[in-house]
Amino acid sequence: FASSSISTTSQAVSFLKGNSTTFAISSDTPGKITQRPVVAALSQIGKGRILLIGDVDIWSNSNGDSLSPTLTGILAGKNLQFALNVFGYVDNYSVKLPKPTRSEKYQIISIPFDLSNFNILDVLKDLGSVDKTKWRLYGRWNGTKYLEFPSAEFLSFKRGEGYWLITKGEQNLTLGNAIISTQQGFYPITLDSGYNLIGNPFPYRVSWATSQLSTPDSVEAWLWNFTGVGFQKETNVMEPFTGYFVKSLRNGATIYINPTEVTSPGSPGKSAAEQRRFAGNEWQIQIRASNGVATDVDNSAGVLRSANDEWDAADFSEPPPAPTDYLALSFSHREWQNNPGRYAGDFRAVHPEGNYWDFDISSAKAEANISIALDKLGDIPSDFDMVLVDMATERVTDVMSSLSYALTLKKNEYVRSFRLIVGKKEFIEKSTNGIPIVPIAYSLDQNFPNPFNPSTKIHYTLGHSSHVELDILNVLGQKVKTLFSGDQWIGSYTMEWDGTNDRNTKISSGVYFYRIRTEEFIATKKMVLLK
What we know:
Layout (H helix, E strand, L loop, with lengths): L9 H4 L4 E2 L2 E2 L16 E6 L2 E6 L23 H11 L2 E7 L10 E3 L10 H4 L11 E7 L4 E3 L14 E5 L6 E8 L5 E4 L3 E6 L6 E2 L4 E2 L5 E8 L4 E4 L2 E2 L4 E6 L5 E4 L14 H4 L7 E8 L4 E9 L12 E2 L9 E7 L7 E8 L5 E10 L5 E10 L6 E6 L4 E4 L5 E5 L6 E9 L1 H5 L13 E2 L11 E7 L3 E8 L5 E10 L2 E7 L12 E8 L4 E8 L2
Parallel strand pairs: 21-24
Antiparallel strand pairs: 1-2, 3-4, 5-10, 6-9, 7-8, 7-9, 11-19, 12-18, 13-17, 14-19, 15-16, 15-18, 20-21, 20-26, 22-24, 23-24, 23-25, 25-30, 26-29, 27-28, 27-30, 31-32, 32-35, 33-34, 33-36, 36-37
């Protein structure tokens, strides 16, 4: 064969030196090019590839007997990579989900192949035409919501991405055909700033821990895997056909997924909390929330010598909510200078008096019964107590020994705020946001003095922050004056009445009533004005 009679492709051209259809590669003399032509052609034939090459120099390594480390011939740099890919096993493959879909339960899937056709309706042909009563598909998270199929921006799948899928009934899905090779390189996935839905780009378990970043510290170390009821952190491997959330701290950061198959059996890997060893004065509280349908179990509040009160490398973000009956616990830190947002792990510097953490529990359903469980790791100082402040009920609960708390969301209540305080007694007392340590009850005291002239004081206690109406009434029940109308925090208050009406005119002596009304409390008492 002569070079003029053999066609070449760009796949061959990109690996062999030269131009046009005649190529030459390194010969036995380092730094020089063989004068004999090397002809290369690469073609797809049926299920395989055929390669035609000429000249023995392409196979030789003349430096093999010398001390020179320079490799030539087929072993030289990209020539070897080219040959391995050409001679590796190549076949057409019918891609199927390894397990049936979960009936009426969301899961995050991915497609670990380059399909011949990525059109969503063609890939999910087994599910039929678009019918939201039978199946739904969501893609990229934009910070507030998921992109739902079909839309102009979401009509096809992409290798390396993850997708939320739900089907009515269990479905066995054949996704399409792919051409695969046993020789594959690191797979690049470019990320947007914030949370990204990614997928394992390979049809077997691979190492997340040994994948590489284009820019150091540009992506959080944790993947979030959806278990069907909630998210859990993954630090080691990526499962095939599975999607994950990952947080990118930079726009345009690229993660290169290691193609090496992970064959060792066992669990994917220990959580960061399980791996961490605590030094003196270091500890953490793991917080788990459940409503019987959904859970959020991977949340941590703690102190480390290496941590800062704002963002540091030990903190980890809270993933976006699932498009289902989600339950999410998160520490909100939109005030942070670096990487503001919602976090599942919040580690602070060591403070001798104590620390507190504000967090929210969000639920897809109101009126849900929610249980909170806490676990202590490390050595909390012996003179520290731990309380949980329920901001909605304004109650402070000692959880140092019980390590649990139960609540019920009210009608139309989807978010409940809490404060976890761990510290000395004096620190706790001043960190409850004004809520008393010991619960107080609503009360309306007798005015003093009574009878009175010209003024009297009315004292009352609010067992809960509320809108308050304090009115003066005559014996006919008619309003004489409004002493106060507005919102007040939990606590005790004193108001003074000078014996005037709403027009600030002195009224006649006699019997009057004063009445307090809040959302949860109504009370009335009698008093006498004398002149």
